[in-house]
Specification:
The complex is a heterodimer of chains A (about 290) and B (about 325). Chain A has eleven helices and four strands, in the order E-E-H-H-H-H-E-E-H-H-H-H-H-H-H. Chain A is mostly helical and about 290 residues long. In chain A, strand 3 and strand 4 form a beta hairpin. Chain B has a domain of about 220 residues. Chain B is built from 13 helices and four strands. The two termini of chain B are about 20 Å apart. The chains are: A mainly alpha (about 290), B mainly alpha (about 325).
Chain lengths: ~290, ~325
């Protein structure tokens, strides 16, 4: 088991794991985008900036308040989610009656502001964030060494995705949400505060992005651009999966991460473009996306 | 975007076309613009004006799609930047004269537009925006790795050359008149497209696509042709910019550039013919004066984006038109 298809096994498994990690972030971010889009009909262009804010809040908590990783996992999504609530209340909510493209333009502008402010404050170079002591080291799996933190990220991401799915599909709040997505006017008529639900949905989607940001902080260096480049790939993932189904976006996210990882092994030059090629093929064969409703 | 030109609910005066499809007010505005282009190099720095004109043409090309077909492309940097690269490569490595280099820039934009457009027009609205953005990012990654683009350095020291073997473009003033002519030709072409029977079909697609289909128009073909025209003119703008500044870099293919052209059109007024020109002038002037503030320029641009979307959706020219109750 030293070589597979002429590729050294550790390299292959290493890239597969890297692909799974990237896939975990694609899944978490596209899930947040899908939840927000389902309820608000807005593509949240600020999502990348909010992912980056999550990582920065974790960094600030550690360096300014002495609060470690575990606190950050809890506090950062709350703080960033709260800023999301404010953004929705003060700005996005004014645009619901207009064309959906205005929501996209608005959140793009907000993203520029946030990223610019962080770049002025912290510069463009990345800042390291140490892996928490409990998750350092690696497991010997026999065929490769698996850094514990990376395994942790994949597992936590899967758990977070499943939890989101359970909340939406199996709880009462989730049923309100699904109903309001189908027919907001009717749900409002039943006495449910739909505008507040929209605000909270946006906050929750943003919190999910910030949660992903905290998970990413020890893996990638914490820097103001970390979200902007990722979010464009996530858009492609969203187009491929279609935004119709929660599990669909999770499966698509992980699958594309793995495809990207494998491409890095077999044809490294194409690894940065392979997801866009997949997007083109999907658009030509199934324009609504793999899990989308036309 | 459903009818950016018409969503304001303004009760416009009915004006008939008096010349070249321009109404009387538009003709006055056009002549004022030409007059400004003709006299401004004598009191403003020509290189700065050339930058404005290149971006004005770029923004006009972008506005053809959003304003008259209702398609928001978030990836126009791909055609602009690639046009610049190929024009620069043609002038520097192949030693072609500037007129051919700029044409090659336009052809590059058109070729990319055919490929990306054919796939992107399969979806509308926000999906269209996301797809064009994703493909533009793919072009960016290609440019980052390809040999001929020079990677992080870009293509430098592109010669301006001699136009038609007669006009030496190393003089800024001669170069300026060439850029002015390229811009005006592009502007009039777009104006002509909008007012042609083809343009009428485009507007009907913007207003109600199923209805246009039911009247027997192959709407996908119309959208694709509009997309390719827009991409080709963006390529011309990018090629011209590369020749003027002698440099083609990754900045021009990056997604921030796609955002900037959206901002220019939005500030000037989506769906107005003079809006993108005004928007380009405002944004480039702002960047020029604020250059010393570094990254704050991004913040300011973001703030302008937000303000425009929340409170100023008609843009500068749109507001003026609304005030005078005429279409500009």
């Amino acid at each position: 088991m030293d070589e597979i298809f002429g590729i050294p096994a550790p390299l292959l498994f290493g890239q597969l794991l890297l692909g799974l990690i990237n896939g975990a972030f694609y899944a978490l971010l596209s899930l947040g985008l899908a939840v927000i889009f389902g309820m608000l009909n807005v593509i949240n262009f600020t999502h990348g900036a909010q992912f980056m804010m999550g990582a920065f809040v974790a960094w600030m908590l550690l360096n300014w308040a002495g609060l470690g990783y575990w606190w950050a996992l809890l506090v950062a999504p709350l703080v960033v989610g709260l800023t999301g609530v404010i953004i929705e209340k003060t700005m996005i909510s004014r645009l619901y009656k207009l064309d959906h493209l205005y929501g996209l333009l608005l959140t793009f502008g907000v993203g520029l502001v946030i990223e610019g402010v962080f770049r002025n404050e912290f510069g463009s170079s990345g800042m390291p964030y140490r892996i928490p002591a409990e998750l350092q080291g690696s497991w010997d799996l026999g065929f490769m060494f698996m850094p514990i933190y990376r395994g942790w990220v994949v597992i936590v991401a899967i758990v977070a995705c499943l939890a989101t799915w359970l909340v939406i599909e199996k709880t009462k709040i989730g049923s309100y949400l699904r109903a309001a997505t189908e027919n907001p006017a009717l749900v409002q008529a039943f006495g449910i505060n739909v505008p507040r639900m929209m605000t909270l949905t946006y906050g929750a989607g943003v919190a999910l992005a910030a949660f992903a940001g905290v998970l990413a902080a020890p893996i990638y260096s914490v820097n103001p651009q970390m979200g902007a480049n990722l979010i464009i790939i996530v858009f492609a993932v969203v187009v491929i999966g279609g935004m119709g189904s929660i599990l669909g976006s999770v499966v698509t996210g992980f699958t594309l991460g793995v495809i990207e990882g494998l491409t890095k092994v077999f044809w490294p030059e194409a690894s940065s473009t392979v997801i866009f090629v997949v997007m083109a093929i999907v658009l030509l064969t199934r324009p609504a996306g793999l899990f989308g409703r036309a | 975007m459903a009818a950016p030109g018409g969503f304001s609910g303004t009760d416009y005066k009915q004006e008939d076309a008096v010349l070249f499809g321009f109404t009387r007010t538009q003709l006055i505005a056009f002549l004022a613009m030409v007059a400004f282009i003709a006299i401004s190099p004598f009191f403003l720095y020509p290189v700065f004006l050339m930058k404005v004109l290149c971006f004005a043409l770029f923004a006009c090309a972008f506005n053809l799609l959003i304003g008259y077909v209702g398609l928001l492309s978030f990836g126009h940097a791909a055609y602009f930047g690639m046009g610049g690269y190929l024009a620069g490569h043609a002038a520097k490595v192949w030693g072609l004269p500037p007129e051919l280099a700029i044409l090659i820039g336009g052809a590059t934009g058109a070729a990319l537009g055919v490929v990306i457009g054919a796939i992107a027009i399969r979806r509308q609205g926000i999906y269209f925006a996301m797809i064009t953005l994703a493909f533009a990012q793919m072009v960016y990654f290609f440019c980052l790795q390809a040999e001929f683009t020079g990677g992080e350095d870009g293509i430098q020291a592109i010669p301006r050359g001699v136009l038609f073997g007669v006009f030496d473009l190393r003089s800024d003033m001669t170069m300026y008149w060439v850029v002015a002519i390229v811009f005006l030709a592009g502007f009039l072409l777009i104006h002509r497209i909008i007012h042609s029977p083809f343009g009428m079909v485009l507007k009907s697609i913007r207003e109600n696509e199923p209805r246009a289909t039911s009247l027997g128009y192959r709407t996908d073909d119309y959208k694709l042709v509009a997309f390719v025209l827009s991409a080709a003119l963006s390529g011309v703008a990018g090629g011209t910019k590369a020749i003027v500044f002698g440099i083609a870099t990754l900045t021009d293919v990056f997604w921030t550039m796609s955002g900037e052209v959206v901002l220019m059109s939005l500030v000037g007024g989506l769906g107005t013919i003079f809006g993108p020109v005004m928007g380009a002038a405002v944004i480039i002037t702002m960047q020029n004066y604020l250059a010393e503030f570094g990254a704050w320029v991004t913040v300011i641009q973001g703030v302008i984006f937000v303000l425009c979307v929340l409170a100023f959706r008609r843009g500068i020219v749109g507001e003026i038109g609304n005030w005078l109750r005429v279409r500009l």
